[in-house]
What we know:
3 strands; rod-shaped; alpha+beta
Amino acid sequence: MRRLVRTARRRLRSGERGSAAIEAAVGVPAFLLLIGLVFAGGRVALAGQSVEAAATEAARSASIARTETEARSSAIAAAQRSLDEKGLNCTPGVALDTSDFGNAVGVASSVSATVTCNLGVRDLAVPGLPGTIRISKTMESPIDTYRER
Length: 149
């Protein structure tokens, strides 16, 4: 009886040889892919917050300006400055809606700024992830109702 049990144990042990290597060969790449996706998600979330802050700064700077031309130049500068402070390496595209600058004094008006940034994620080497992700945020800021325009 003992001999039969020993023989059965030996057969079970020899049948499982190499299974740890196969499990590692399947598990490790899946784990690395998961880690890469976590890093990509974190990078996109932080970049989204930075672009939103840049859009807020651009809209605020434009709403303080006296003319449409001054509003455009100050919005672009504010967006770039904000992204530089956050450490986001991209050249922003700033679209500004200054159509309310033509409203009469006393009429509620606002300026909206849309900041767009292409975030590079190629260095993460995650399969199926594009080389760049486009992030765009729009914010609005009121123009002083009784300010001369």
